[in-house]
Amino acid sequence: RERLLAGAPPPPSRPEVLEGALLERCLEEEAVQLLDAAAKERVLGYVRALLRYNARTNVYARSSYDKLPFHVADSVTLGLMISEAATPSSSVLDLGSGSGLPSLLLAAVNPQMHVYALESKSRKTRFLAQAGAELRLPLYTPITANVHEFARVSFVDADFVTAKAFKPLPEVAPIAAACVGRRALLHVPVSEAQVRDISLAESQLLRRGRFVYYREAVVPARSLVKGETLVAEARAPQQLRIDSTVSSFPFFNQK
After folding, report:
1. CA 158 – CA 184 distance, rounded (Å)
2. Is 70 exceeded by the pLDDT of residue 153?
3. What are phi and psi of 204, to 5 degrees?
4. What is the pTM of this model?
5. Tens digit of each residue's pLDDT (9 = 90 or more) over 123-148
6. Which residues have CB under 8 Å from 160's CB, separation 6+?
């Protein structure tokens, strides 16, 4: 009733109607329209996979489906920004990947880039792995681990770190610093309310349309052992495997 009084359309009742409405709204987003046909289809494939999986296993709040096109566009915009700054060998670490926003969409926009999705809940990493396979993203790697436990035994040589709806902003950079093995650039989507409440300077922000991102250079918190290398960069994509324990990942440096 409140939605009708406010002029908002009632939420679709049937799954196929809901899917069609959300896909149409995603396609209307300017960031999605900038993609080539293959990337656009990967983005829409992500939405289909999320709705299908979420019907039986909760990985995204069903009450927030109306906000999904915004979050898709936010993640795609971030993927395009990273693409502009990346090199052919760049990689991304996403903290608290949840339902794949932004990690799966970063990979959908940049399928040639290694994207590591760190998430503590196995029901969510199962979805991430399944969706990554469906979207044919062989360089997309979910990791089931608590970020603090992961940081105690492993790290990733990522060039970019992302975190969307992960932790309070002041906590994100220290966690990122504990998880990377070389200097990286942190990008965190933020709201205008956060900009005001935390008094973020414009020099710390990147703006693209209605989307705002906090940016900070991150320096590794550990002293690296001389000669350490990241095995993943020397391996063929099909050799990378997904496992539920950090120690079984052969492509991460161990402390």
Report:
1. 6
2. yes
3. -90, 0
4. 0.84
5. 999 999 999 999 999 999 999 999 99
6. 82, 85, 86, 90, 91, 92, 93, 184, 185, 186, 187
